[in-house]
Amino acid sequence: LVRLRARLSRSQNALGKGLLTLLSREHLDEDTWEEIEDTLLTADVGVAPTQELVERLRERVRVLGTRTTDELRTLLREELLTLVGADTDRTVHTEAAPDKPGIVMVVGVNGTGKTTTTGKLARVLVADGKSVVLGAADTFRAAAADQLQTWGERVGARTVRGPEGGDPASIAFDAVKEGIAEKADAVLIDTAGRLHTKTGLMDELGKVKRVVEKQAPVDEVLLVLDATTGQNGLVQARVFAEVVSITGIVLTKLDGTAKGGIVIAVQRELGVPVKLIGLGEGADDLAPFEPGAFVDALIG
Ligand code: GDP
């Protein structure tokens, strides 16, 4: 966790440092407030949350009058925490039905880190003493099933797969059947994320979910989003949210960007919490999203 925190800080604290420096200026004139706004927008915080935050900061700084750096840091921390959502439930649920495995569908555009995230999540659950079955329902990308199976072998989870180009829903069905037969604690289903036709995607993801739900309720639909894609990622996220009901967001590749504000923007956009973050390609680089640690990393 300490290592993850360090990595998060390295990539993130440009934003908070910038904000603190600006807020510490003796005269907070309109130009400075504009610079503060630009700093937030550049960090991908998004237009509406930026305006809200700036308004709150203006009000609080005005009330404060003279201000020390410590006071500003505290104030900024509080306001960012409010924006990120300090008390939101971010548990990845895997216990919707008694005597059935918890079902987690992992969705998102190809290349965002879906398969990697599915593997890492399996590792977290197995380390927690849970038995896991993996469903390789991404039959679109040729190597996806192999990649998932390799993860499965590494972490000690069985992978159910079908023929290349096979029907994702039938593989998902088989994975859940296997999970029920083996009395597994969780079944994690990796899905394909081609975006070129929305109806195609809708049909496929909808079908996967319906077919799975014939056997067990789906606990979580996690949308994987690449933090480095910024506002483009948000557009994609919206398409997914329209076709399947998302219960949580996994923000990957936060190690590769200083634009941590995307956490705030995507939660606002989808009305769904960021539950997990990816901070590298390694097996241990998936962490629960902790608002406090995140905001601390932002402020530096
Ligand atoms: P998929 O097509 O969505 O299943 O994507 P993959 O799981 O194959 O991941 C695409 C690439 O992103 C791979 O090279 C992963 O190792 C890499 N990746 C995934 N998550 C992270 C992360 O949190 N940080 C970094 N730096 N790379 C990641």
Automatic annotation (TrEMBL):
Domain SRP54-type proteins GTP-binding per the UniProt entry, residue ranges: 273-286
Residue positions binding GTP: 108-115, 190-194, 252-255
BP GO annotations: protein targeting to membrane
Localisation: Cell membrane; Cytoplasm
Main location: membrane
Source organism superkingdom: Bacteria
Keyword annotations from UniProtKB, A to Z: Cell membrane, Cytoplasm, GTP-binding, Hydrolase, Membrane, Nucleotide-binding, Receptor, Transmembrane, Transmembrane helix
GO terms assigned for molecular function: GTP binding; GTPase activity
Entry GO terms, CC: cytoplasm; plasma membrane
Catalytic activity: GTP + H2O = GDP + phosphate + H(+)
Subunit structure: Part of the signal recognition particle protein translocation system, which is composed of SRP and FtsY.
Similarity remark: Belongs to the GTP-binding SRP family. FtsY subfamily.
Protein name: Signal recognition particle receptor FtsY
Biological source species: Streptomyces evansiae
